[in-house]
């Protein structure tokens, strides 16, 4: 039986979030990008508007004055006129378009980051089905989006009307002005109204983005069973881990059973660690760790050492250091030469052997 959404009480794991991100499921608001670009467009027009108007004025004066094309019927003159017009338009609009593009990319990347998701680019014909889009309009989430959009439109129109009524005295005066002053005042009124509406839309879009984040977190929630299965996939099946641990312990015991009888000395902690050292001056540059173990394995090493009459020497610091620093089959590092030499000398004196 399918699990209800009410059962999804656990926050999403890091792996669940990463998988959702790879599928393109991220919190984003198209309204936020559009509002930011609208605000940027208003500000950029205010800054670069005169530059664009100057380019337009220069183009009209040149074209109407016949300075560039004394013979407009000639193909070369027509081509030169087109190049001139395109150059002026590009110069006038380039700062505006580039600034707008930069703002759009910055806002989009701030929401979702810069990442390529091939899964989203794959062709899926089911997404082209009209019924799928229509069905999304009538589910609970679609109704919420429709209600939010309608509320936004009402709020924007209401506040725009309120701002317009506040500027009504200045609008009425426009009828008494000449062309140039009328154009300047009208631009000021339109700019102020557009700036206020853009800021309002940006505020509404920020609220929509916060809602999208909340909605995504709610969609990614998991049941307790899903969390357990996710952790099992990440960490591995406990039964498999137990079996691997058991096999590793068996292999370690086999190595210990064959290596300890050949060791010259066992250095212990005395109970937690046991290190079996072997040294042959004819074939080795330095003593070698042939077996080591902690707790249960340390006990087994001591038992084998007692059985085969291998000397056991307690050196707490040395045992801990060798256990951490040296792997089985490796020679001891130079910094432990003196300490191990003292242990071997002590063992050789007890057995009556000469130090090589």
Provide structural commentary:
The protein has 356 residues and is mainly α. Helix content is 68%, strand content 6%. It contains 13 helices and four strands. It has helices at 14-22, 30-65, 75-112, 118-121, 130-138, 140-166, 168-173, 179-220, 224-235, 238-259, 296-307, 316-325, 337-351; strands spanning 265-268, 273-278, 288-294, 312-314. The protein has a four-stranded mixed beta sheet, sandwiched between helices. The longest helix is centred in the middle third of the chain and has 42 residues, at 179-220. The chain is elongated and about 120 Å long.
Proportion in helices: 55-70%
Question: What profile does the largest beta sheet have?
Answer: 4 strands, mixed
Count of helices? 13
Counting DSSP E segments of at least 2 residues, the number of strands comes to 4
Stretches where pLDDT falls below 50 for ≥5 residues? none
Report, as a whole number of angstroms, the end-to-end distance. Answer: 76 Å
User: Rg from C-alpha positions?
Assistant: 40 Å
Which outline best applies? elongated
> Approximately how much beta-strand content do the residues carry?
5-15%
Average pLDDT metric: 78
H/E order of the elements? HHHHHHHHHHEEEHEHH
Please state the structural category: mainly alpha
Order of strands in the sheet with most strands: 3-2-1-4
How would you briefly describe this protein structure?
The chain is mainly alpha-helical and 356 residues long.
């Amino acid at each position: 039986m399918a699990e209800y959404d009410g059962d999804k009480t656990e926050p999403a794991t890091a792996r669940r979030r990463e998988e959702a991100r790879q599928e393109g499921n991220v919190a984003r608001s198209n309204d936020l990008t559009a509002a930011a670009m609208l605000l940027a467009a208003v500000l950029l027009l205010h800054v670069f508007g005169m530059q664009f108007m100057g380019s337009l004025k220069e183009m009209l004066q040149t074209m109407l004055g016949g300075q560039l094309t004394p013979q407009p019927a000639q193909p070369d003159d027509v081509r030169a006129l087109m190049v001139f017009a395109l150059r002026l338009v590009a110069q006038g609009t380039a700062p505006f378009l580039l600034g707008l593009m930069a703002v759009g990319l910055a806002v989009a990347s701030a929401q979702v980051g810069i990442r390529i998701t091939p899964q989203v680019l794959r062709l899926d014909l089911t997404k082209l089905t009209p019924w799928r889009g229509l069905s999304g309009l009538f589910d609970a989430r679609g109704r919420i989006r429709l209600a939010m959009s309608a509320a936004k439109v009402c709020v924007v129109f209401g506040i725009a009307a309120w701002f317009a009524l506040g500027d009504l005295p200045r609008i009425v005066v426009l009828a008494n002005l000449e062309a140039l002053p009328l154009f300047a005042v009208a631009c000021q009124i339109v700019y102020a109204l557009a700036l206020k509406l853009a800021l309002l839309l940006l505020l509404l879009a920020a609220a929509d983005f916060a809602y999208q984040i909340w909605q995504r977190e709610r969609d990614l929630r998991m049941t307790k069973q899903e969390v357990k299965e996710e952790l099992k996939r990440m960490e591995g099946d406990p039964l498999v881990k137990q079996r691997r641990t058991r096999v590793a312990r068996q292999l370690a015991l086999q190595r210990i059973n064959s290596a300890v009888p050949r060791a010259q000395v066992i250095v212990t902690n005395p109970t937690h660690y046991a290190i079996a050292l072997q040294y042959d001056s004819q074939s080795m540059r330095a003593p070698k760790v042939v077996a080591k173990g902690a707790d249960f394995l340390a006990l087994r090493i001591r038992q084998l050492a007692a059985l085969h009459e291998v000397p056991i020497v307690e050196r707490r610091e040395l045992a801990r250091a060798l256990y951490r620093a040296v792997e089985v089959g490796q020679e001891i590092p130079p910094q432990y030469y003196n300490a191990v030499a003292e242990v071997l000398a002590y063992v050789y004196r007890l057995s009556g052997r000469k130090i090589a």
